[in-house]
Amino acid sequence: MTETTEEHWAPQSESFNFIPFAADRAYREANRALLKRAFAYLPARFFHVDVATGTGLVPQEVSALCEEEGKCATVVGIDPDRFAIESARRHTRPGPSCSIEFVQGMAQDLARLLAGRIPREGVDYTSIHDALHEIRGDEDKRGVVAAMARILKPGAILTYNSAFTTVAMDEAPMDWGRLKAKAFAILGRKRDRQMPAFKVYTPEQYRQMITDAGLAVIYEARRVVMLSRAALEAIARYPAFVEGAFSDMVGTQQVSLEEKSRTILAAIDSLGIVAIPRVWHEIIAQRPAS
Questions:
Q1: Which of 4, 31, 83, 112 is a plausible cystine mate for 198, CB 3.0–4.6 Å?
Q2: Using an 8 Å Cβ cutoff, are 186 and 259 in contact?
Q3: Rounded mean pLDDT of the chain?
Q4: E strands present in 105-209
């Protein structure tokens, strides 16, 4: 199922949000593994800014890792979605060695949002997990990465990952294609071939954005994550995924988010899907020491 991520999606709500997918074990483990690797580069006490924090998965896992590894953290999570931020505040419990604050706002406004909140000398760690692809346009993507790099101390790190690159479906392209085709067929709709193609970035392009921001890539990998049927049903409740899946359908604006979501669920059921693999691209980059 091809998804595009260059539009303004519907906001999250009680009915349609990222919470169920964020609870998926395989998804959490993929993010936790990257965070755990990042911990090797962090001091005993560190300041962390998580951009596009969503419903709080990264701060939650950082708090747990602090307990396991005996580190202390101050974490600021930033996200533009009101529902996501409120959910993160409700469901994220800071540990005894980890303080967490959530701030609503756009990543493009990072400097303003963080004014007075972060140390003058900069932070030890910035992260943007499963979100850079949702930021509109090349210029804004680059601007966000550059803003994250600017607040890093010398020697500090950035982590990024994304399951929406040109290699995301490489492990099972036919399975994702059949899922999308079945969903369109259930609705009796066809692909709108007059729509201009949306840009899906390569891993190399994301790497270049990071290095262009003045950071050195010190780790890069592709991680295959097996998404279970339950995980697929969960992501079918996330507005950005749902709208992206149908963005090139004829008359897509005439079909409600609710109906699109139900259609993906029906397609999963009709095809008898048990699981489909997805490829995450991930990077740790470091600001050179002065």
A1: 4
A2: no
A3: 94
A4: 123-129, 152-162
